[in-house]
Every structure is written in structure tokens, then in C-alpha cells.
């Protein structure tokens, strides 16, 4: 099997690492890739995942017969539709189904239609009506841009002037949702589906705030754990009954023909689990802690999904736990420098640590240079989440560059320490 992975983040590095360990692989390409993926396969730095012609040309040139789409933007543009038209098997939903992530109003209407517990929301396209509503309400809200915004489309604020300014800016070229603010703890549930059957993967939690103790600005995610110790079987049954099953029933009723991964972003509130959002791709950094726990051959697993044979696939999940810590550039999630030289990274034993690169590049001296805000995810693996944490933090101290930083409290809220 000749595989092309689309993306350059730590998520795509972890996907590439899974494929590299598959016995089915006869060619492994990553577009555009990073320094980490370049050690496992062939990077195609000139191929743009958001340009269908560019991806199709690469598929033809390298004889690709399985494409894995990492992030949401190519899905929303219809990369899956374009590749399937040419007969190329591809992991990910087609454009219509990708609206579950690419349109907040589409997904909110879907949740409401299928009685899935979610925060009450109101859509606005008119600035004056929006501002009047904000002036009048007496409960806390979250503002959400309808379309994709690379993690910058949601504002959580109690300051009405800030809310109005943010919403007014969004309304210049999109609609928005004003959503009731929910309190609780967040978990990420991942379901693999082939359009006929689905299986749930171990539960993850990511840590989205830049600061310790979940304070400060939202980021793409500063760390993640898998599985989440507080999710017991009773809560999992409730999540399945109230959220997962109605979602798949709804997808069948709407004929969405979804193949790939569906990510449920949940808030566990005092009143039970609520669905905040769907994502139509794997999470980042959740994937970096989730995939090391999948023991089955990854090439076989993805092939089973694309051939609609998931129901008969013997999926094996490890009993280990994983904790990942993101190493970021100084200034992130605000402005940050790129091109910083990374100190040589030690080689860690794979059964205790994994280091996934995000958007790193090399120079003519083969130094590794940063090229983004979140630069690495360092994962510790252990028999439980406590020793996974010890291993992650032992290693993360040895992955650094000028100004690099990480949160020292990933997973802490689950440990009582
Ligand atoms: P979303 O893109 O909808 O997942 O929102 C991004 C982040 O904003 C979520 O992961 C939550 O941390 C936060 N968020 C979204 N909706 C709500 C809500 N209704 N109440 C509280 N926090 C929310
Ligand atoms: N970790 C959040 C996301 O991937 O959207």
C-alpha cells in the first residue's frame, strides 16, 4: 500500500509513525510534512493539501492508493470528493459531511434535530440585532464564528463590549452563534466509522489554555491525556446513549455517508454530558496520545474502514496510558519567532517516550528549525497516567530551543496532587 498523509503537524507526524509501523506499507509520503515525518517517509514540501490538483498530481506521480487527510481545511474544500472521483481511496468525510465541523450552524441544527444535548444557541447575521441581544441578555455566553477559523473563531468573555467588538468583526464576512456558556470538564471522544459501523477509541482530554491551571488564552492545545481516569463505564454509557447513538442515527437518516473519524468535543456538566462541537478529523494534540495506544496494524485498520469492513475488524487497544506535553515558541498563542534552532533531541526508547514534530524544517547544515507556534508534542507512555506523566516530563525537559516553554500541569487536575 502506498500512502500519502496530508499535513505538517505533530498529529500528522503521529499518523505517519503509525503507518511507518504497518506491515502493509510499500511507500510512505507526507505533504508537506516536517522534519519528523521526513525520517519516516518522503516529504513532498511542494504539494499543497488545500489544492486538489496538486494532491491529485502527487497521487499519480507516486502511485498512491491510500490518502489520509489530517486537518479540516482540505475536507471543507472537498478534497475527499475530488480524490474519490478519480478512484483514489481516502480517509475522511466528503464535503457535505465535513459541514459537521465547517459550519457551526449546520452542526447546531443537526444536534437540535436529533435531540442531542447541546448549549442553547441563537444565530445572527445582522450586527444591530446581535448587539441589541447582547445588551439585553443576563446570562454568560460564548460567541462562535460559523465557518472554520483555525481555532480563533470562539470567544469566551464576560465583557459585553469585547463580545460586541468580536461579533461585529465576525459579521463582516460570516454569520455567528451566541451560545449559552456551560461549565464542567471537557473530554474528547473519537469514533472511527466506515459508514456502516463505528467503534469508539479510548477517551482523551486536551488542555486548551496557555496558562497553568487552565488560565489564560485559548490555544490549539498544550497537552493531552489518554485515557481519562474519571470517565467510568456509567458515564461512558450515558455519553453513548445521549450523544453517540443519536449522532450516528442522524447521519444515517441524513444519508451523510461518513467515512473516517468523528470527534465529539464534550462538556461534562452537572446535568450530564453536552456536545460542544463535532470535528471531522483527529484532534491535535489528542492524536499524539491516542494512536500509541492502538495496537492493531494501522494500514489494515484504515483499509478496513475504506472497504466498509470495520464491523469485522479485530481492533486491539493497549492497556497503557499516555500523556503528551506540547513545547511551544515564546509568544505563542500570540506572535512568535520562527527559524529557531532546536537543540539535538535525544533518542528515547519508543515504549516509554515519543517525540512528534510540528512544522519543523531543516537548513543546509541539517539543523532542525522551528516553523510554527506549537513545535513538538512529547509523549510519555506508562502502565497508568501517573507514570506516563513522569516519563513525559523527564523527556520534555530535553526538547528545547531558545525561549521554548510548556505547561507543567498537564493532567494535574485528574491527579489530586
Ligand atoms: P468549539 O470550537 O465549539 O469547540 O469551541 C472551542 C472551545 O471553546 C471549546 O473547546 C471550549 O473550551 C470552549 N467552548 C465552546 N463552547 C462552549 C460553551 N458553550 N460553554 C463553555 N465553553 C465553550
Ligand atoms: N484539540 C482540539 C482540536 O484538535 O480541535
Could you characterize what this model shows?
- Helices cover 30% and strands 24% of the residues.
- The chain is an alpha+beta fold and 417 residues long.
- It folds into four domains: 2-92, Rossmann fold (3-Layer(aba) Sandwich); 120-180, ATP-grasp fold, A domain (Dna Ligase, domain 1); 185-312, ATP-grasp fold, B domain (D-amino Acid Aminotransferase, Chain A, domain 1, 2-Layer Sandwich); 321-415, Glycinamide Ribonucleotide Synthetase, Chain A, domain 4, CATH 3.90.600.10.
- The strands form five sheets. A five-stranded parallel sheet has the order 3-2-1-4-5, sandwiched between helices. Strands 12-13-16-20-17 form a five-stranded antiparallel sheet. Strands 6-9-7-8 form a four-stranded antiparallel sheet, sandwiched between helices.
- The protein starts with a strand and ends in a 21-residue tail after the last helix.
- It binds adenosine monophosphate and glycine.
- Adenosine monophosphate (AMP) binds next to strand 7, strand 8 and strand 15.
- The site of adenosine monophosphate has 13 residues, from strand 7, strand 8 and strand 15.
Amino acid at each position: 500500500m502506498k500512502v500519502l498523509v496530508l499535513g505538517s503537524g505533530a498529529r500528522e507526524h503521529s499518523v505517519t509513525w503509525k503507518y511507518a509501523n504497518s506491515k502493509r506499507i510499500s511507500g510512505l509520503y507526507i505533504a508537506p510534512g516536517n522534519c519528523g515525518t521526513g525520517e519516516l517517509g518522503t516529504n513532498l514540501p511542494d504539494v499543497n493539501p488545500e489544492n486538489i490538483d496538486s494532491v491529485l498530481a502527487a497521487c499519480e506521480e507516486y502511485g498512491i492508493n491510500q490518502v489520509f487527510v489530517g486537518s479540516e481545511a482540505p475536507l471543507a474544500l472537498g478534497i475527499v470528493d475530488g480524490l474519490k472521483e478519480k478512484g483514489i481511496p481516502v480517509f475522511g468525510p466528503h464535503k457535505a459531511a465535513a459541514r459537521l465541523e465547517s459550519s457551526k450552524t449546520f452542526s447546531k441544527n443537526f444536534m437540535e434535530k436529533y435531540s442531542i444535548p447541546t448549549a442553547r444557541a441563537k444565530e445572527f447575521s445582522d450586527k444591530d440585532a446581535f448587539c441589541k441581544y447582547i445588551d439585553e441578555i443576563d446570562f454568560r455566553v460564548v460567541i462562535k464564528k460559523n465557518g472554520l477559523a483555525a481555532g480563533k473563531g470562539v470567544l469566551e468573555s464576560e465583557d459585553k463590549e469585547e463580545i460586541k467588538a468580536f461579533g461585529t468583526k465576525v459579521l463582516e464576512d460570516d454569520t455567528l452563534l451566541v451560545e449559552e456558556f456551560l461549565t464542567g470538564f471537557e473530554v474528547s471522544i473519537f469514533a472511527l466509522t466506515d459508514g456502516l459501523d463505528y467503534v469508539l477509541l479510548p477517551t482523551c482530554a486536551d488542555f486548551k489554555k496557555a496558562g497553568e491551571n487552565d488560565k489564560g488564552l485559548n490555544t490549539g492545545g498544550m497537552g493531552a491525556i489518554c485515557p481519562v481516569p474519571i470517565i467510568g463505564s456509567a458515564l461512558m454509557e450515558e455519553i453513548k446513549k445521549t450523544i453517540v447513538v443519536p449522532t450516528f442515527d442522524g447521519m444515517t437518516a441524513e444519508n451523510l455517508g461518513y467515512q473516517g473519524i468523528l470527534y465529539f468535543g464534550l462538556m461534562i456538566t452537572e446535568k450530564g454530558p453536552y456536545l460542544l462541537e463535532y470535528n471531522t478529523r483527529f484532534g491535535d494534540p489528542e492524536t499524539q496520545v491516542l494512536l500509541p495506544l492502538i495496537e492493531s496494524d494501522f494500514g489494515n485498520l484504515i483499509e478496513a474502514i475504506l472497504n466498509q469492513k470495520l464491523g469485522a475488524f479485530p481492533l486491539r487497544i493497549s492497556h497503557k496510558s499516555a500523556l503528551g506535553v506540547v513545547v511551544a515558541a515564546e509568544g505563542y498563542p500570540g506572535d512568535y519567532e520562527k527559524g529557531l534552532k532546536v537543540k539535538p533531541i535525544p533518542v528515547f526508547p519508543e515504549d516509554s517516550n515519543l517525540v512528534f514534530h510540528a512544522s519543523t524544517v531543516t537548513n543546509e547544515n541539517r539543523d532542525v528549525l522551528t516553523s510554527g507556534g506549537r513545535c513538538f508534542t512529547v509523549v510519555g507512555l506508562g502502565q497508568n497516567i501517573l507514570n506516563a506523566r513522569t516519563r513525559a516530563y523527564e523527556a520534555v525537559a530535553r526538547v528545547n530551543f531558545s525561549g521554548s516553554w510548556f505547561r507543567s500541569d498537564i493532567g494535574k487536575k485528574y491527579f489530586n496532587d
